[in-house]
Give the backbone structure.
Amino acid sequence: MPPKRTIHFGLRGMGVAPAGSDRPNSGHHHLIIDSELPPLDQPIPSDFNHLHFGAGQTETEVNLPPGEHTLQLLLGDGGHVPHSPPVLSERIRVRVVDAASAAETPRRHPSAPNAKVYFVYPTDGAYIPRRPTIRFGLLNMGVAPAGVEKANTGHHHLIVDAALPPLDEPIPSDFNHLHFGAGQTEAQITLPLGQHTLQLLLGDENHVPHDPPVYSKPIRVTVTTTGRRPLLHRVVGH
Ligand SMILES: [Cu+2]
């Protein structure tokens, strides 16, 4: 839950009455925060850990610091003394997170110094066939499948004919952004004839680039039917 939050509560089988009232079978709520139950045979203390709702409220806004907290309800009579037997809720555990982490923006993992992704095949300027097997590697960090959180690891993404995507969010997954989430270091792809650019970008378990990002320079390749440089001039004779 966020730091500032309205807590709602209720009472069944008895009635809510303000403090000071001596109506039978009634009482008012007390919210116990981060504390054990107080002694049940005397008035419930009134302090930061024991909030009284003596006007008969059934909701309140609380302001809790980030972290784990416990909440428990305890009914008190007109004199703030618990009933016999006491009427209380389970003690629940809540975790308060600040707005930034509540927004679920995956945090970027640091990359290792000198980490590098690189192409084994093809190299810049190469002529390649229409269904080449692209081979690539990673230096100074480890390859791990998507979904596995482990420091200094990531999986490869091949960016085809596109600029680098935004580096602070998950890498898109489409024809221009191929994910190798199983930890592959080679992949057969299909490319139309002509010139293309290929670039590698490492992503963490959530497909988010590291900080600083680990990517290769884009390379330029030319796809031909033979996978070789076309012969423009045939030299005949001597
Ligand atoms: Cu990915």
Remarks:
- Helices lie at 99-102.
- Residues 146, 155, 157, 171, 179, 181, 203, 207 surround copper (II) ion (CB under 6 Å).
- The first helix runs from residue 99 to 102.
